[in-house]
Design a protein that fits this description.
mainly alpha; 6 helices
């Protein structure tokens, strides 16, 4: 789950929720809620995590691929996965509407 991966990144860097939030220019309640599955991780926060901690967005959002960015290819793979996720979400939304 994304929440577990966010927590793993924070703990691997020996940061409290407050310290992690400060690194990302967020309130610590936001990190607490994401880690506790009370709030979804949005793309802006995911990109901050990618930039500050060199985390592969593909791994962060899907659990697939390498945890850390090793090349620009990782970002290309993420884009393909993100398109698949968006397509599945759109299909789910269409089913809920009908």
């Amino acid at each position: 789950m994304i929440s577990e991966r966010v927590k793993q990144i924070r703990e691997n860097n020996h940061l409290t929720q407050k310290q992690f939030a400060e690194c990302l220019d967020l309130k610590h309640e936001k990190i607490r809620d994401i880690e506790n599955d009370k709030q979804k991780l949005n793309i802006e926060i995911a990109q901050k995590i990618e930039d500050k901690f060199n985390i592969n967005l593909r791994w962060l959002l899907t659990g697939r691929g390498d945890k850390y960015i090793t090349s620009n290819l990782d970002k290309i793979c993420y884009c393909k996965d993100n398109e698949e996720i968006n397509e599945r979400q759109n299909e789910k939304n269409e089913l809920e509407i009908t």
